[in-house]
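Limitations

Structures in this collection are predictions, not experimental determinations, and the ligand pose is part of the prediction. Treat each record accordingly. The example that follows, with calcium ion as the small molecule, is included so readers can see exactly what is and is not provided: the inputs are given verbatim, and the output is the predicted complex.
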Amino acid sequence: HPDLASNMWTNTAEKTGLPGVDDDGNGYIDDVYGYDFVNNDSNPFDDHGHGTHVAGIIAARGNNGMGVVGVSWRASLMALKFLDASGFGSSSDAAEAILYAAAMRAKIMNNSWGGGEYSQVLYDAINQANNAKALFVAAAGNGGYDLIGDDNDTATFYPANYDLPNVLSVAATDQNDALASFSNFGSTTVDVSAPGVNIYSTLPNNNYGYLSGTSMATPYVSGAAGLLLSQNSSRNPIALKALLMGKSDALPNQANKNVAGGRMNVNQSVNCTSSALDMLALIPGEGFAMITDSVYHDRPPLTIQAQVHACGKKTSYPAKVQALFSNGNTKINLFDDGL
Ligand code: CA
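Predicted complex:
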């Protein structure tokens, strides 16, 4: 697509190497722009259309006098295809694509897809991405077969629901800043929302068009993460999440619908100068269950890890962290004393 071509990531070793040879020795032959894991070839051309639309939201070229602009005008797009022309694929191919992206040092992985049962292979691949400090932005999902949004706290939706520190689950809002009727939500499992109704972007064969879905909201967040990384390439997934969620606009209609309680605000994220601190739970994730019944008084202690940030930068300030029980039990203070 002419609005995407100049922003495509290229694998220099393969581009300048020999055809039919795995020039960089990464296990894939001629992976110049990415790879097609469903057809097992080096041509990830989008024969469905969804991926091209998502790519344009992230990084359609800015200031080129044509079409649309993505959130991040010059981000580098790596094309990794694991779904076929009908939009179907396997968790194992998805895992392979994620491992490829992690190995090739992609820093943001946009996942405008979902479905299927819990997959340990997929969990392990996303954990590998976490170890590689790659943010995994995932669509919260579009309400299953009835297209009315589900609560992901009870109706699990993968990969958005994998409980890993680098996963950022995104819901969709409309032009009135209301949660889209089709958008899944979740007070502990969905992190933030972004626009996802009637979004105009790139389509294959040099076309443009409108699509709706949490698939469209997700790349807005990925593009914003790209801008934040271009400001400071040392920001890790936790720092990016702190900026994207902590500087969002709080909206009353989303108070209990996602962890941030609102819609992403890119301007506030990239212009963060606040001295206010943001805290993100790392282990376990937000909304974990803890049994405090005295019958289980001999249970091992529960370790809790959290990071405190100011404008996405890890702070060294002494911080007091308070934990609240959803059943109304007395709140407790957590001290950095290893207990
Ligand atoms: Ca290769």
